[in-house]
Amino acid sequence: MGIQFFTYEKVVEEMALLKTLPSSLHKNSLFTKLLTGFIMIITLLFSFNFFSFPYFSRNVQKEIIVNNQQNLSATVERYENHILIVKGAITRLFSNEKVVLMNELGNGTRFDPVNQIVDEIKSILSNDLLYLDNIVLQFRKNGFIIDKNGTSTTGKYFTKNYASKDYGIEFWEEQLELAYPMKIGKRSEFIDKFNGRSNGSFIPIIFKNDSNAQLFIAVFLDPVKMHNAFHNSNQNRFYVINDDKLPLFASLPEPVPDFPLLTEMETYIQDDDLYYFYKKGALTGLTYLAVIPNGNIAAQVSRIISILVVFLVAAVVLSVVISVVFSIKFNNPIRKMMQALQRFHPVGPLSSNIREYNFLYDNIKRMIRINREIHTDLDQKKRQLKNLHYLYKLKKINNNLDSDDEAFQPFYLIVFQLAMTPRYYQLVASEQDRASYFIKEFVSIALADKFADSVTMQIEQDQILSLVFADNNQAERLMETLHELKRVFDQDEEYCYLTIAMRPQLCHPAEFAEAYGETSAMVHRRKPKRRTQIIAQMPHEPKDASFTPAEEQQFLVQLQAGNRKIALELVSSILNRMNKNEATAGQYVEFAKEIIAKSLKTLTALELDISMVLELNAPYLRIKECLTPDEFEDFCKWFLTEALLMIQDRQDGIDPVKQFMTEYLHEHCDEDLSLEMMAGKINMSANYFSKYFKEKIGMNFTEYLTELRIRKAKNLLVESDQKIQHIAEQVGYVNVNSFIRMFKKVTGTTPGEYKRIHQLGR
User: Fold this and answer.
1) What are the pLDDT digits (tens) for 42-65?
2) Each residue of 372-397: pLDDT tens digit?
3) Could you tell me the CA-to-CA distances from 600 to 586, 590, 620 in Å, in that order?
4) Global pTM?
5) 206 and 110 both lie in a single domain
6) What own/partner pairs with CB < 8 Å and gap ≥ 24 does 123-129 have?
7) Which residues form the HTH araC/xylS-type domain (predicted)?
8) What is the helix (H) or strand (E) element at residue 644, kind and residue range?
9) Considering the domain boundaries, does residue 256 fall inside one?
């Protein structure tokens, strides 16, 4: 930094200027205004909270009581909805045709209906969220029952399988004589005396239906699981009580408390030190009771008030400290900015009571805004004009831009050529564009950090151009910077490799196009290796790297003859020679393109359709993924094999498209196939594919697919013991009824009849 010397008059002027600055402790100063405002707000908030505390403490207890009421209401709603869901499932059982049949027959020896009813019971019980242990259907006729395990008699089942001291055989027999839609019993333990173990502790719920008066269905509900799922955290003492005050369930192993008389008008009662929150279920008529000690509510109120007091005191202290610190920190920078600005542009005050803002508003805001807009606009236009000028010169366009070459300094020209890996091409298009943009931005920032006068632009998606304006003795420093970039790019070899070509001599603006052509040639002569390379000298390129005239003639003869072995051996021989002679990557690319061109020319001459080769396989795009000799050899062999197979098929009279269609349908006939999907696979429209298919196969697409599926189904019916539904799925029919209908339409018999006929024949 330079040193500024002042004359005596200048010092006096500065001192006089500083005297005009406002004092921080002035009554209209920003510091005083800020601090006073903060203190007033803090005082107001503290006063409000202090005087509202008595009112708040009275309402906290009410809110806690309301919260407990709402918690109980939510619990009751969950219980009632759950029982309603269970009732719905059981109601469907009453209307089940197999249940109706068994009720009429009164005989549990009919295995098919029994098994279907058992399956239906197991299906309901498989829903763990119903919390059901078993479902029992009790039939009046012959006194038999059906549950998840099968059939049994009433006496045996309720004395041996599900025996309970609270529910004897007389209880269950009596229920057949009583009329009610639903009865909920109290919780009891049920014993399996056959196995000498407890089935568990359940609440039995009995459902009856007017349409089936000779039958009732009982479910065994697990109340502990329901309580764990439905209760709130503060409902430790929870009871379910019937109209006779008989407890059906208690969450704690203790007697039900002797609570006061409950009325329908109230939702809670306070008695001594206990709160009794209760609500009656609309569906079941049961009373749900939650008992909470008064000490719990008082403790909650006290805890909340204590926390609020602590927070209030802490907030006041912290607010005062923050107000002072913030006022000081906000005021000091403003005074410094005023001192800096007033030396150059002293102005009058704005219409505000704070003098600092009168000064800052009219100067800092306006000056910064105008300055930013001017500089941003100038910098952007300057960069655009400079880049446009270089692009014009690169393309050798005679433009009318005012760009005198003498005004530009000599520069070093660098080309960054991107070679993307298959992993890069797996990214979506937007991600590929972002990756290229970030590489360009990284190069631009890295070069600008070391060489301020540098320009970096992306002239192609895979090519970046940089101009570094520097002295003649900066080449070594620039090369060091490029090696630093290489070390960074080496870490991203999974996605891309770069060829960095730099012309080591300074270029004059008039030599721009020539220098670009030279560096592009250097890129073309990169080594065929998977790594980032820096090229500062024109590499040697061997001559005669491709076909010799004799080899070219032999290749064309073998290609037209469809002789795959000799053609591939010839290509391998040429590639081995190129590798031995250290051919450049550009020569490998040209050789691969020559293979493509000669192959396509031969296919066209033989009147073969080359659209599938070009559109589906995209050979020119795949060349870009090749970087090493082995990869170029694999590509050439792959593409040449595709072309030779088409030629061989032509000679053998094979239609590759027809072969693909039939093979694909045979291998995937068990999938959901459609004409549109198959047309898309071979790049045809649906209408054209339909005509093409019928012309080549002799029948339309739907007829061929149906015949293929039915033929496969016939084999499976005869040769396997699989169910008809499984066979339908294996031949592409999701709906078994559709399969049966189509099978009968084609063969004249159903699948079951077809299988029986052939089994009898064998």
Assistant:
1) 787 777 776 666 666 667 667 778
2) 677 666 765 665 556 656 655 555 54
3) 21, 15, 12
4) 0.42
5) yes
6) 124/89, 124/93, 129/229
7) 659-757
8) helix 629-652
9) no
